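Checklist before submission:
- one chain only
- standard amino acids only
- sequence pasted in full

Submission:
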Amino acid sequence: MGPATRLALASLVVGLVVFAIKFAAWNVTGSVALLSDALESIVNVGTALMAIWAVRVAARPPDADHPFGHHKAEVLSAVAEGILIVVAALFILTEVASSLRDLTVPNAPWAGIGLNLLAGALNGGWASVLIRRGRQLRSPALSADGHHLAADVVTSVGVAGGVAAAVLTGWAWLDPALAACVAFYILWSGGKVIWASASGLLDESVPEEEIVAIKRVIAARGEGAVEAHDIRTRHAGQARFVEFHLVVPGKMSVDLAHGICDRIEAGLKSELPDARITIHVEPEHKAHQVGALAI
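Returned file contents:
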């Protein structure tokens, strides 16, 4: 079992514990704001299950039906997570509309607030782990899960403060009003997750610093070639795809040209261990000269 899978399984356990705590907080208070926070935790459990599926599928080697691998499973999981977040927000707004017909100040508020803050603390600690490790493992599914949990911490703190304000002032309308604010914040958070994850589905280029590193390696390892041009990249989960045209002297043997390609590939893999590299060798009359990367 790889590190990404272990983290995804741990997220499921944390999600179930946090949901149980938040459900208990709502059960003792009857607060619709605390209910909204608990409902968002159901999404956390669902996204953890998707992350487990995604990291396991993404780790599969290429096969006849998927010759480029299964890396986009993680990207798809992150998009689905964003959609679930949006659905949860809409459900919360439905609960808010129902609660407006019978406004009451929450019962046993301090016990509920304490339980909610405990759940928020657990989410906060685990979110920092997921964001850090998701970045290290270049896992969109784990990173999306971590950022969602971080947003959940903000809502938990806000909900706890709002419920306390409703009790201290006696203004029962504060409870559903706060729940509505939570719902709109969750909608915004879900939209951000979908937008950030869609780049992987649209074959967005790798980050600029990685492009600079790719060009540096080609220039350093491409001795004997004339130039490199049409450098194109894309990313899908942990994988990086790099392809470009390498121009060599027309009279150079295939063996020598292949040796240059091997040197460049070795250098690129030292910079980007998960890179899949395709080099198209061309004779010198194919040189672009203008706008090409001379090496």
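Reviewer check: The domain at 208-294 is CATH 3.30.70.1350 (Alpha-Beta Plaits).
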